[in-house]
Design brief:
- By secondary structure, the chain is of the alpha/beta class.
- Helix content is 33%, strand content 22%.
- The chain folds into 2 domains: 3-103 and 337-343, Enolase-like, domain 1; 116-330, TIM Barrel (Alpha-Beta Barrel), CATH 3.20.20.
- The protein has helices spanning 59-71, 83-100, 105-109, 129-138, 153-167, 183-193, 211-218, 250-253, 256-269, 282-293, 327-330; strands at residues 3-21, 24-38, 43-48, 116-118, 121-123, 143-147, 172-176, 200-202, 222-224, 243-248, 272-275, 324-326, 341-343.
- Helix 4 packs parallel to helix 5 and helix 5 runs parallel beside helix 6.
């Protein structure tokens, strides 16, 4: 691929309200947008946005590495890049290649990729449960995700039971504990929320090697998320067969190619896949949505995060309809919002 131009922009966008996540209160989402051009004047873009507490690299480290890559893009092994940088670089390259072939990234990867994907709604600690659940159900969401493990155990139990009462079986409930509990605490939690039906629970245990024991004792489907950090292959996870679901954040596992490799392994092992975003803007979300479309499934994805941002790096923002994202609309978004972007002077 002969690149003739590379542009790099930085953004800092306020959240609609402070976001309590991974033990920290976040007020802004910051990151980089990479845009590459070829000799046929086709372009592609990608997003590089380390999230504090989730990605090991900082934004400054990612930016420095990306600037070095820009100086010799064809002479740098993608495998040597930080996961967020590799995700952004590969997104831009694959997006450009798809545009060169007159198609979407999803259809370039998988010719019969889905034209729309379902997404789950999200309940946070700051949400008033009854009106929030009502709003999500009215908006057509078929699955709702709820964070647990950040409050005292009995408070978590009470909140989940309240959600269960509000749902009345009209949507499935996903729980995400971020490895908050000991084995005994997790068992107490599951007993406490009974009989609320749970689609799956993500990473309930501080010690994930006990997940097989937890799954056997509770019969609740287990999803892996943090277990995918810093691994070369899904097969590196010794308790992989315990998982009913894996949560893949492409910017965490390290790019497009690696995500597709994880897809293949999960399919061969009979494990469902949910693509999730690390609170990206519409550029990163578009890449993730196109990857999700390649799964050809009706399982809701974790891609409903753009509404947390006051504005976006694209003039046309991600908008869901009845709990779905339309890929045809998403792939037509092609105008950057220069009002929120600061160009970094390091062009190729």
């Amino acid at each position: 691929m002969n690149l003739t131009k590379i542009d790099l922009f930085r953004y800092s966008i306020p959240f609609i309200r402070p976001l309590q996540l991974l033990g920290t209160c976040h007020t802004h989402r910051t990151g980089l947008i990479l845009q590459i051009w070829d000799d046929a004047n086709q372009w592609g873009w990608g997003e590089i946005a380390p999230f504090p507490g989730l990605h090991p690299e900082t934004l400054a480290e990612a930016q420095n590495q990306l600037i070095k890559w820009m100086q010799a893009p064809d002479n740098t092994e993608d495998s040597a890049l930080y996961p967020t940088v590799r995700f952004g670089v590969e997104s831009a390259r694959w997006h450009l290649n798809a545009r060169r072939h007159g198609t979407s990234m999803a259809r370039w990867i998988q010719p019969d990729a889905s034209s729309r994907i379902y997404i789950n709604g999200l309940i946070t600690l700051s949400d008033d449960i009854e009106p929030k659940v009502s709003d999500l159900l009215s908006a057509g969401y078929r699955s709702i995700k709820m964070k647990v493990g950040q409050l005292p155990l009995q408070e978590d139990i009470a909140r989940v039971k309240q959600v269960g009462l509000c749902l009345q079986g009209r949507a499935t409930l996903r729980l995400d504990a971020n490895r908050a509990w000991t084995f005994d605490q997790a068992i107490e939690f599951m007993r406490g929320i009974d009989p609320v039906p749970v689609e799956y629970i993500e990473e309930p245990l501080i010690d994930p090697t006990l997940l097989p024991k937890f799954a056997k004792k509770t019969a609740v489907p287990v999803a892996l998320d943090e277990s995918l950090l810093n691994i070369t292959s899904l097969n590196d996870i010794p308790y992989l067969d315990t998982a009913a679901v894996i949560i893949i954040k492409p910017s965490v596992v390290g790019g497009i190619a690696k995500t597709l490799d994880f897809f293949r392994i999960a399919r061969d092992r009979g494990i469902q896949v949910v693509i999730s975003s690390a609170f990206h803007t519409s550029v990163g979300l578009a890449a993730e949505a196109n990857l999700a479309a390649c799964l050809q499934t009706n399982i809701p994805m974790g891609l409903d995060t753009s509404k947390w941002l006051q504005t976006d790096v694209l003039l046309a923002r991600f908008i869901s309809n009845q709990g779905c994202l339309d890929l045809a609309n998403i792939n037509c978004y092609n105008l950057l919002n220069l009002d929120v972007l600061e160009e970094i002077s390091c062009r190729n």
